[in-house]
Every structure is written in structure tokens, then in C-alpha cells.
Write a structure and sequence with these properties.
The protein is of the alpha+beta class. The chain is 31% helix and 45% strand. Keywords: Signal. It comes from Polaribacter pacificus.
Length: 163
């Protein structure tokens, strides 16, 4: 509960600072670096791997998905995303847009996208290959630590689209 309160206060603080300073940061070096971190994560997921992603997150980064606390990034990978990737034939992002705002040593991002997942069929379970298409949104908070941007909080949600 304390972590959730801290994250909520941090988010409100960042939004307040951003509105107060209202400036276009889309071309700053830090903004480009923040977007590069988010792209590296997105690219790994599209390649159906978590390899190289742990360095993008702090060890205590908190992950939320669909309004549920998943725990730290390590916990999320071990009990959720990692095993899930093994069931995917492909995971493709499209219509991807990202906004990033940097304030001092903190940044926040908002990503909007459509993703298409092709699930592998399973002869043992008598399931056929199927496709899931969803519209997703993600918000993340990053902190610059020792000169590198790291994700400290991420929240994703989605709604399935009819295909």
C-alpha cells in the first residue's frame, strides 16, 4: 500500500511539474534516450524474448497489468510474461505511438498501440493456432540512475478487438 501511495504521489508530482513547465521536450537528448529504453523493451517482446530487458528496469521496479499488481519486473517475468512468451508464435505491435516527458531525473511515457498475438496450437491439448488482437495503452515512469534511464514503474492495459 505504501508503494502504491508513493507511486501515485510521484505521478501527481510529475504531472504537476510538467504542466507548470509546459514545454516541448520531444527532441531533447534525454527524451530520445527514454524513448530508446521503451523501444528496446517493445522490440524484445516482439522478438519473444526477455533477454536484455532486465537492464531496462530497476531491481525493485513495480509492474501493473490490467489493474493488477504483478510485483517486481523479475516476478512479472518469472510468473507471467516469461511463460506466456513460450505460447506465442508471434507478437507484433502496430499503430505504435509514444509520448515522453522528462523532468530532471524522472520521466514518464504514454504508449498507445495495437498488438496482434498469434498463439501456437497444441496437439496435446487439442487446441488450434489462434490470433488475438488488442488495443493497448501503457504508462511508465523512468528514473535516471548513474546516467542511464531505468523503468521504475509500468502499467499496461488493453481491450480485445474483434477480428
Amino acid at each position: 500500500m505504501k508503494v502504491l501511495k508513493f507511486i501515485t504521489l510521484l505521478t501527481v508530482f510529475l504531472l504537476t511539474v510538467n504542466l507548470t513547465n509546459a514545454q516541448d521536450t520531444s527532441n531533447t537528448k534525454d527524451t530520445k534516450e527514454v524513448k530508446a529504453v521503451m523501444k528496446a523493451y517493445k522490440d524484445a517482446i516482439q522478438n519473444l524474448t526477455t533477454e536484455g530487458t532486465f537492464e531496462l528496469f530497476t531491481p525493485d521496479a513495480i509492474i501493473f497489468e490490467q489493474g493488477k499488481l504483478e510485483g517486481t519486473y523479475k516476478e512479472y517475468i518469472s510468473h507471467h510474461l516469461g511463460p506466456e512468451l513460450g505460447h506465442f508464435k508471434s507478437f507484433i505491435f502496430s499503430d505504435y505511438e509514444i509520448q515522453a516527458t522528462v523532468n530532471s531525473s524522472y520521466a514518464y511515457t504514454t504508449e498507445n498501440y495495437i498488438y496482434t498475438i498469434v498463439l501456437k496450437g497444441n496437439k496435446t491439448k487439442d487446441t488450434k493456432e489462434r490470433t488475438i488482437k488488442s488495443k493497448g495503452v501503457a504508462t511508465s515512469i523512468l528514473q535516471k540512475i548513474d546516467g542511464k534511464w531505468k523503468i521504475i514503474h509500468s502499467h499496461t492495459s488493453f481491450k480485445k478487438l474483434k477480428i
